[in-house]
Structures are given as structure tokens and as C-alpha cells.
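Quick review question:
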């Protein structure tokens, strides 16, 4: 099992050979293998790169990584960053992958700037078009290359030309039809296909990721994890994946059906190719790749925020830009109404009539006093849900059942007790896997819940996902994360019932 280590401090140097040396300027993110750094080339100081580390690779992993990165070095596509080189630091037992740094916010950041965290269909298609082309390009290599980690946070919209770029090739794999490419540590919850939990990946694995990414961008919701879907479907229960049109009723039928097929749990039920998926998705759609700039429709505008403090420099560069609210101009209806009242006063000469219109104008200027109800603007504070307006399923005080460790192939008792709930927040006591501890998490309006249990003896955390079934029982999956929040490879299933 991979053991986590501390990340490299800002300002430290990484040797890439006898003469090459890179200085860490920021931490761009963390993944299942290690950390992604923003580094500067000491020889050509204007050159910035993204540097991904792989911690403690074994001999087999190292051989595969070197071979596959050598292939990726020769890949050139406008929506894919260029992989520059791979080098090893034998002292720290780490391997580094040096890639082009693409400056700009990612889609996970951008979608949260839209109303209800979702992007309209024409805009989503325009954004995803170059990404679909890039994945198709990878799949048509000989042999095909499977990206395996397609998600909004891995899609960057560069500030230079606004054409989306797919990043993070740290877990890309050359697809070998006769081989099993186990990827248990290489799966992002909500976006990873079921086969990434152990049976091996194929080009259709990327189609699931493209479908899940499209689902999130259009609905504003991250899909239920595929492992939980697989569990419930195997028990003859309904698919816990919420239909897209239940979240966004205005979505066209063929769009919802196409994305649902792309996210099929059985990979042979998905589209056979990216081209087939894209052609079906865009059939009859009115959109253009040359539509207005992405940032133009945002209620927030990207503005650089200069930060000189080295402590905060990392945080600034990781998100690339700070999105700030711009003032929104609104029609001044009250002025129009006042002018209308004065005109009527002059024309009709009636003080009583003028008084009526004057009062009406003042009420229009102060809708609260007039007790009127207007639809909230996407950029107004009224767009947020009102307190107590959302109803969450209520959990009882105690549940008991079993939890299975898939790696150790063992099953033990599990219980959640002394459960307290305040709206969507839940907390209580956990027993299972030979451990006891406190848990804290959330539940959404349709019964999907997530919570975490710290393991103080090892600085690890058990991360749970689940769904409340009809009758009150809860089933789900869990993963063990190290102190850096990285998946350790240990996972399993759990099922509990009231009482």
C-alpha cells in the first residue's frame, strides 16, 4: 500500500538531472499518486511547468510509467498539454512527470460561478467539443491511450484563448486488450467507471468519465459513485443515479438519454466510441464552437489578484484567478413609475389620481414593503435557498449491520449510534473494521449521504458514501484516505439497518 509523505515546501528545488533544477512555486493539487506542483525552470526562468510526482513506485509501476510516458511525450494536440520529460529522484524514491502548465481556471471552479452550479447545454457542448476531440485522438493512437481521470477539475479553460484543455496525464494508460490494467487507486469518486475498481480499463472507461462530466456540468450535481450504483443494481434495487431531467426538467430527452447510456454500469452498454457518443449527444442541438467567450455569461468576472506574500502565492496560483463579483445594473423601475405619475398629474390635474400612482411607484421601489414576490435573480443573494426551505430525510438514532473489507476479504459488524442531525449535517459514533470513532458528514434531499471517520492511530481517514433505501436501510461503499486525502487502495462495502 502506498504510504503518503509530506509535500515539498514552496521554494524547494527538485533535481531533474546533472544540470536541470526546478524550483517549487506553488501546489496545484493532490491526487491518488502524489502532489502536482507548479515549478520554474532555473535555466530558462520564464518557463513554468506542472510537475506531477509519483511516490514510492515499485519496479513494475516504474517500468510501465517510463514506457507509457515515453509514448505520451510524442502526443501533440491543441487540447492536450505536452508531456516534456520524466525523471527519477532516487533519494526520495519519487518519479516526476514534467508537463506544460496551462494557466486558467478549471471547470469545477467555473461551474460554481453559474446559477445553481450548472452550465447551459449550448455552452456545455461548446466547452466539451475540444475535449471530445482530444479523447478521440488519444483513443486512435496505436495502441490506444486511456486517460482514466476525466472530470471538471481536470479540464482547464486557458486565459489566453479560452479553448478547453484536458490535463493530468499521471494515470493515463496504454490500452492492451489482452491485459488486465487494474486501477483500484486511480478513480475519482463520481466520475470513475465501475471497472476502475479492479477489473481493468478500456477506452469505454473514458466514455463514462465524459458522460459523468457532462452530467455535472448540466445539472450542477456530482453523480452518485459508480461503485454504489453497481451494488444497488446487483441487489435488484433501483439505480441511485438521479435522472438528469428530474434535476433540470428543461433538458431535451435525447441529451438525458445519451448521457445516461454513456454512464452505463455495464461498459458494453456504453457507446462504442467517443465519436458515436458525441454525434448522438449533439444530434439536433443548436450550438457553436465559436460562441461568445465563456466568461462573458458569468455573473462573476475573472480578475487577477496580485499576491506578493509567499505564503499565499501557492493558493493564488493553484486556482489561477480570483473570481470577484461585479455590480449588476438593474432597470430603475421606480424612476419610470415616478415620471409616469408626474405626467398623469399634469395631464389629469387630479391630486387623488396622482397620489394613487405616487404610492404605487413607491411600492414598486420597495417590494418588501409592498409584500410582492419576485423570482430571484441568479446574481442576487435571493438566489440562495431560504432558511428551512429545504427538507432533508431524517435519520434515526442508531443503525447496525456489517462492513466488508474488500482487500482483506473480511466482514465485521458496523454501527452508527447517537446520531444527531441538523438539516443536512449529520454526526455521531462509528464502530466497525475493529475501530471506533466519531463521524461527521452530510445528507442531501434524496437520501445520498457522505461522512468521514478519522483514524487517529494512523492519521488516515475512512470516507463513506451511501444511500438511504426504501424502508430505511442504508448501503454504500467506503475508501481509506491517507493524511493528504489520497486514496490508499483500501476500500469496501457496508450495509446497515435501523435499530
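Suggested answer, residue by residue:
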Amino acid at each position: 500500500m502506498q504510504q503518503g509523505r509530506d509535500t515539498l515546501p514552496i521554494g524547494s528545488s527538485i533535481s531533474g538531472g546533472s544540470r536541470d533544477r526546478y524550483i517549487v512555486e506553488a501546489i496545484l493539487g493532490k491526487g491518488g499518486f502524489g502532489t502536482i506542483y507548479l515549478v520554474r525552470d532555473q535555466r530558462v526562468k520564464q518557463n513554468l511547468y506542472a510537475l506531477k510526482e509519483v511516490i514510492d513506485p515499485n519496479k513494475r509501476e516504474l517500468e510501465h510509467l517510463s514506457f507509457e510516458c515515453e509514448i505520451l511525450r510524442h502526443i501533440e494536440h491543441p487540447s492536450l498539454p505536452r508531456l516534456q520529460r520524466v525523471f527519477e529522484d532516487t533519494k526520495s524514491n519519487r518519479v516526476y512527470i514534467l508537463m506544460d502548465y496551462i494557466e486558467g481556471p478549471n471547470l469545477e471552479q467555473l461551474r460554481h460561478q453559474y446559477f445553481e452550479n450548472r452550465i447551459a447545454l449550448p455552452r456545455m457542448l461548446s466547452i466539451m467539443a475540444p475535449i471530445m476531440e482530444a479523447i478521440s485522438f488519444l483513443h486512435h493512437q496505436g495502441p490506444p491511450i486511456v486517460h482514466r481521470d476525466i472530470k471538471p477539475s481536470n479540464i482547464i479553460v486557458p486565459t489566453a484563448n479560452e479553448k478547453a484543455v484536458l490535463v493530468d496525464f499521471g494515470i493515463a494508460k496504454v490500452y492492451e486488450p489482452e491485459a488486465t490494467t487494474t486501477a483500484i487507486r486511480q478513480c475519482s469518486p463520481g466520475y470513475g467507471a465501475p471497472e476502475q475498481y479492479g477489473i481493468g480499463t478500456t477506452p469505454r472507461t473514458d466514455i463514462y468519465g465524459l458522460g459523468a462530466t457532462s452530467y455535472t456540468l448540466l445539472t450542477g450535481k456530482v453523480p452518485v459513485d459508480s461503485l454504489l450504483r453497481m451494488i444497488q443494481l446487483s441487489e435488484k434495487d433501483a439505480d441511485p443515479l438521479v435522472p438528469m431531467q428530474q434535476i433540470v426538467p428543461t433538458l431535451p430527452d435525447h441529451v438525458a438519454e445519451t448521457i445516461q447510456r454513456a454512464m452505463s454500469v455495464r461498459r458494453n452498454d456504453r457507446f462504442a466510441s467517443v465519436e458515436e457518443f458525441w454525434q448522438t449527444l449533439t444530434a439536433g442541438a443548436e450550438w457553436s464552437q465559436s460562441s461568445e467567450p465563456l466568461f462573458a455569461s458569468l455573473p462573476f468576472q475573472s480578475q487577477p489578484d496580485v499576491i506578493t506574500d509567499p505564503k499565499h502565492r501557492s493558493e493564488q496560483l493553484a486556482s489561477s484567478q480570483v473570481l470577484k463579483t461585479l455590480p449588476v445594473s438593474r432597470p430603475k423601475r421606480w424612476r419610470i413609475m415616478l415620471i409616469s405619475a408626474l405626467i398623469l398629474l399634469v395631464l389629469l390635474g387630479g391630486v387623488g389620481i396622482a397620489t394613487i400612482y405616487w404610492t404605487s411607484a413607491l411600492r414598486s421601489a420597495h417590494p418588501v414593503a409592498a409584500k410582492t414576490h419576485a423570482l430571484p435573480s441568479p446574481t442576487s443573494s435571493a438566489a440562495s435557498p431560504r432558511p428551512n426551505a429545504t427538507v432533508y430525510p431524517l435519520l434515526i438514532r442508531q443503525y447496525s449491520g456489517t462492513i466488508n473489507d474488500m482487500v482483506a476479504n473480511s466482514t465485521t459488524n458496523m454501527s452508527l449510534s447517537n446520531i444527531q442531525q441538523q438539516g443536512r449535517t449529520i454526526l455521531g459514533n462509528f464502530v466497525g473494521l475493529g475501530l471506533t470513532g466519531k463521524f461527521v458528514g452530510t445528507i442531501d434531499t434524496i437520501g445520498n449521504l457522505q461522512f468521514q471517520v478519522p483514524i487517529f492511530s494512523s492519521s488516515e481517514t475512512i470516507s463513506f458514501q451511501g444511500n438511504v433505501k426504501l424502508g430505511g436501510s442504508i448501503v454504500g461503499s467506503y475508501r481509506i484516505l491517507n493524511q493528504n486525502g489520497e486514496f490508499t487502495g483500501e476500500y469496501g462495502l457496508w450495509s446497515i439497518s435501523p435499530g
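Why it works: The CA atoms of residues 145 and 174 lie 4 Å apart. The chain is about 25% helix and 25% strand.
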